[in-house]
């Protein structure tokens, strides 16, 4: 199972939503800046669940038990005993259940865009329609869900988010995890959560109704509910700063100054554009009239400056940054 660690300090574990891919997620500017903001003052731990992203393939059933075992395995791998949890979307339900079953291990709990019962996400016909579309046409299904999850994102970011979903999972895995999201019901566990809890929900969230955020807060003893403006289901999209500010304040961390995106030189941006077009180092060299070794050096410096490990991350970063591409 793949996991990533950034920052320093007490551990804050991100329990992911429906699908994730650690490398490509880090290459999307908005998502990277969101996670970097949360890792200032915390050791931020992210993971890809079995069968998703960089983790090994998995062909077994998708259950809450597997989700809880996954959290325990990640925390064991990083040597954590007591942690703070940030669960969003499907991960909010999972994090809440884990906090109910392991109260001694959870110091603080943040739930964003979650629900108490998957049956509240649309009606039965619409749920079956979405599952059928993903199963038969994963490309169209990922486009549809991206528009639902991130309506405020620019066209370039929405395009790369759809590609991100397809890279994170096969259609079969996507269907199985979405079906799990629809089937989960954590209402009976909420009263057993003892950790200080913050529930965040955007009023216009089209994927998870705000009434479900209210139900989460009402069911957890002493939980605070903050309803925010916006429509995006993904926490890193839309007014992500508002989400970061709420989380950092709840965790006792100071507010951050505005994060400035890492910049590249004009030549490096030119090279990044050609990487996004799928050109090899030799083809980049021919296009720019430089040696292949110089092209390779440019790509390497871009990768290091952005903190990426692959050309695919550079390409995804450029496409998300440049909506016209």
UniProtKB/TrEMBL annotation:
SMART domains: HTH_LUXR (SM00421). One of its GO terms (molecular function) is hydrolase activity. It holds the Pfam family GerE. Residues 255-322 form the HTH luxR-type domain. Keywords: Hydrolase. PANTHER family: BIFUNCTIONAL LIPASE_ADENYLATE CYCLASE LIPJ (PTHR43433:SF8), HYDROLASE, ALPHA/BETA FOLD FAMILY PROTEIN (PTHR43433). This is Alpha/beta fold hydrolase. It comes from Nocardioides panacihumi.
